[in-house]
Design brief:
By secondary structure, this protein is mostly helical. It has a single domain (37-229, 253-425), classed as MFS general substrate transporter like domains (Growth Hormone, Chain: A, Up-down Bundle). The protein has helices at 2-26, 31-37, 40-57, 63-70, 75-103, 107-120, 130-156, 164-191, 197-203, 205-218, 246-249, 255-268, 275-283, 291-316, 318-338, 342-370, 376-405, 407-425.
């Protein structure tokens, strides 16, 4: 039976490779290619992200109003909450990615990370002071930090290099689908008699815990029949992660990777928390009852562009897609600066979703192509850490600029930094279309396997 299963997987691997090659030769990548990826780890990691984001987004769009109106904090403290949360997540992401390389196990860290967030996030329901929210967001982001790099490395190792952009696009689309479902659930609950924000926050535990269950039961480590389309990724010949620690191992990622990280940090310094967009929406007349609907519409836009953005990166190279996304970002932030009517906010949120589609999946595909296979977890950890560490000064700076000089100055500053990053990206040497610098597959394994696999 085991031999028959291996033969079946080998046939699936050959068929998947043939499909990918045909798509590349023909210059097209239609729905059958996307459908072929919708199985195995790509499918189930996408389901996990959908459920987790449904849980998170039942809370997040309502958090600015809760912190400012219920708990009495100001915009600067909101910026501090979001900045500290993301910076914390980023510090943990670097260690999580490095540890997954050392252990050669991705799934167990992903389970712990999703579990921490699912259990602690709903405790915002009992917060009575702004610093309570800060503490809970800190713990929630620790969980995100533990899981993110191992999960992204696991996903990258579950597909062939030529379709990584599309695979990450599918995953991001599911993530944004959860961010559509979550606010709609929250809005529906708030329409019920006697429903308060705190009850919505508490009920967010349900989809989060369901996501952890799916992860435990359905996701498999690569090399054990987990790859999309039935393909089993081969073992690479790359060196394994070793050395004094995560920070000391960064030099092994190479100069091109580190220069790319510097450009991403420059962009991120102008990319404050999207909580400020919600604050701007309320400022221009969007009612609290409509905020979850606006947030859901925003994520419909993000979801709609995620797969096309990943396919664009696979076809034309990721740098063009990322640069285009940053130009969209600059235009959207200029729009938020000068908007004066409620309908303009709705239009800007939908347009802003294009930025995510053009950048999220392409950035991850580019990181995977630049990283040696034995250091892929570390590379994703470094990528997420660089962005998240820059998020702290970005959000704090944005909040201070808003409070002292007004929202127009804050948004225009963010747009200017995005334009500068787009220019700098053109000066960085990165892989082009079809170029993969690292072999596909998980790092070499020892004899022991994760008991949760």
């Amino acid at each position: 039976m085991a031999a028959a299963e291996q033969q079946r997987q080998a046939r699936g691997a050959a068929g998947g490779a043939a499909d990918h090659g045909a798509a590349g030769a023909g210059g097209g990548s239609g729905p059958p290619g996307v459908a072929g990826l919708m199985r195995g780890n790509v499918l189930w990691l996408s389901v996990v992200s959908l459920l987790n984001d449904a849980s998170s987004e039942m809370i997040y769009p309502l958090l600015p109003a809760f912190v400012l109106q219920v708990l009495g904090a100001g915009p600067a403290f909101l910026g501090l909450i979001e900045g500290v949360a993301e910076a914390t997540s980023s510090l943990v992401k670097l260690g999580g990615g490095w540890l997954s390389d050392r252990l050669r196990r991705r799934k167990v860290l992903a389970v712990w990370g999703y579990g921490i967030a699912a259990l602690l996030r709903p405790f915002i329901a009992v917060a009575t002071q702004p610093w309570h929210v800060l503490g809970i967001r800190f713990a929630d982001r620790v969980g995100k930090g533990v899981r993110t790099a191992p999960r992204d490395a696991l996903l990258a190792e579950s597909v062939e290099p030529g379709v990584r952009g599309t695979a990450f696009g599918i995953h991001r689309a599911a993530d944004h689908a959860g961010a559509v479902v979550g606010p709609l659930i929250a809005a529906g609950l708030l329409l019920l008699p006697a429903t308060r924000l705190r009850l919505v926050f508490a009920l967010a535990a349900i989809p989060g815990l369901l996501g952890v269950l799916v992860l435990v039961v359905r996701v498999r480590e690569p090399g054990r029949g987990a790859a999309a389309g039935g393909a089993v990724a081969p073992e690479p010949a790359a060196a394994t992660s070793s050395g004094p620690g995560a920070a000391g191992a960064l030099h092994r990622l190479g100069g091109r990777f580190l220069r790319l990280m510097a450009v991403l940090v420059l962009f991120t310094l102008g990319n404050a928390s999207d909580a400020f967009l919600l604050l701007r929406a309320q400022q221009l007349g969007v009612s609290l009852a409509l905020i979850p609907i606006l947030w859901a519409a925003f994520h419909v836009s993000k979801m709609s562009w995620s797969v096309p953005g990943g396919m664009l990166a696979d076809r034309h190279g990721p740098r063009r897609s990322i640069a285009a996304g940053w130009l969209v970002y600059a235009a959207a932030y200029a729009g938020f600066a000068f908007a004066g009517r409620e309908w303009q906010i709705w239009a800007l949120f939908l347009f802003y979703g294009l930025f995510y589609g053009l950048t999220e999946a392409p950035e991850k595909a580019l990181v995977a192509s630049l990283a040696p296979a034995g250091e892929r977890g570390l590379a994703f950890g470094a990528y997420h850490s660089a962005i998240g560490l820059a998020a702290l000064p970005a959000s704090v700076m944005f909040g201070v600029l808003w409070q002292r000089f007004g929202p127009e100055t804050a948004f225009l500053t963010g747009g200017a930094l995005a334009l500068a990053a787009a220019v700098a990206l053109a000066l960085v040497s990165v892989p082009g279309k079809g170029e993969a610098l690292a072999p596909v597959g998980p790092p070499p394994r020892g004899e022991a396997e994760s008991p949760t696999s």
